[in-house]
């Protein structure tokens, strides 16, 4: 039952955080190898196109400024998360029909390697009682081949129907989302996704049938397969980098976002941005449905370099 699942999670939390127990410091560990081809596939999957200025640096491995989009960091880390959830190591089976991606945080401590093998170390840091469900807060650190920390990912996963167990509602470990300033956005970027966007993005490693199988999507309560939240997340990050970092991924420091509504492949993602120093607040909207799909978002940059060539669009 859902209550049993939460009980297993809470038991895992106690074991992981109790330093007096034999397995008190246990983390889930995995290595992940990738080439420039996978980094390029990711860039294409989140909307990079040769129609866009500066895009060649993300799409051509021999470009003198070839680099990896900073949000590619979610791909290896999600690989670990999915492996752990499907392995039974949490003490229960994950029902994909009842799992939603609630929030995401990514922080880079150095630029992502364009290829190589990274080591991932993941740990459940909290479980929150949200009434209608439980939020699982899960951190994954990524290290390079020299054991230097590259990135921190924090996934907040919502388990529908698992709430009401009397747990706490907030966590000091959870990176907070932040409201956008109460003024008109300083910049807006918009791009229309393709009908095949989810089919392409799933090739980066997220094979959840919710994004490709019409019958599965219907069973989950959707009229048709929806776009991955992390794909919309990639689009919004590109928009911020394009507008406030001149597409220079080296200027990226961190991002936080909350996933609030789904995007359907073929719809438009419109990113509204507000600059406050080196922090860019953002929300993403879908004009076709008049819904806000990403909220509480911000990108922290090491520096701001305004792109004055194509304001208001990523194309």
Features:
single chain, 315 residues, alpha+beta, Thiol Ester Dehydrase, Chain A, 2 domains, 10-stranded antiparallel beta sheet, 23% helix, globular
Overall description:
The structure is a single chain. This protein has 315 residues and is α+β, with helices and mostly antiparallel strands. It folds into 2 domains: 1-34 and 67-164, Thiol Ester Dehydrase, Chain A (Roll), CATH 3.10.129; 176-315, Hotdog Thioesterase (Thiol Ester Dehydrase, Chain A), CATH 3.10.129. 23% of the residues lie in helices and 30% in strands. It is built from 7 helices and 10 strands. The chain has helices spanning 2-17, 36-45, 56-59, 74-87, 197-201, 214-219, 229-244, and strands at 28-34, 99-108, 116-129, 133-143, 149-160, 187-192, 252-259, 268-276, 279-286, 291-301. It has a 10-stranded antiparallel β-sheet. The chain is globular, with a radius of gyration of 19 Å. The model is unreliable at 19-25 (pLDDT under 50).
CATH class of the largest domain: Alpha Beta
Strand content: 25-35%
Number of domains: 2
Q: According to CATH, what is the topology of the largest domain?
A: Thiol Ester Dehydrase, Chain A
Biggest beta sheet attributes:
10 strands, antiparallel
């Amino acid at each position: 039952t859902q209550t049993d699942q939460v009980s297993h999670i809470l038991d895992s939390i106690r074991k992981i955080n109790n330093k007096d127990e034999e397995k008190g410091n246990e983390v889930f560990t995995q290595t992940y190898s990738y080439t420039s081809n996978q980094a390029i596939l990711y860039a294409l999957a989140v909307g990079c196109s040769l129609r866009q200025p500066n895009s060649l640096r993300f799409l051509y491995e021999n470009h003198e400024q070839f680099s990896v989009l900073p949000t590619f960091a979610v791909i290896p880390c999600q690989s670990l998360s999915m492996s752990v959830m499907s392995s039974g190591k949490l003490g229960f089976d994950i029902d994909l029909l009842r799992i939603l991606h609630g929030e995401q945080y990514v922080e880079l401590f150095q630029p992502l390697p364009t290829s190589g093998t990274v080591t991932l170390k993941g740990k459940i840091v909290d479980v929150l009682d949200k009434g209608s469900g439980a939020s699982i807060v899960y951190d994954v650190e990524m290290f390079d081949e020299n054991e230097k920390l590259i990135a921190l990912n924090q996934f907040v996963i919502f388990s529908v129907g698992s709430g009401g167990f009397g747990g706490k509602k907030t966590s000091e470990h959870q990176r907070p989302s932040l409201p956008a300033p109460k003024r008109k956005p300083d910049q807006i970027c918009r791009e229309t996704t393709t009908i095949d966007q989810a089919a392409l993005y799933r090739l980066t490693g997220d094979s959840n049938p919710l994004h490709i199988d019409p019958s599965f999507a219907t069973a989950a309560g959707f009229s048709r397969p929806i776009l991955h939240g992390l794909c919309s997340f990639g689009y919004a990050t590109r928009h911020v980098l394009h507008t406030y970092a001149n597409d220079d991924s080296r200027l990226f420091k961190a991002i936080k976002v909350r996933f609030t509504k789904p995007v359907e492949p073929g719809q438009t993602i419109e990113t509204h941005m507000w600059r406050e120093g080196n922090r860019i607040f953002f929300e993403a909207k879908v004009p076709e449905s008049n819904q806000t799909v990403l909220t509480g978002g911000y990108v922290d940059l090491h520096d701001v370099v305004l792109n004055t060539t194509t304001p208001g669009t990523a194309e």
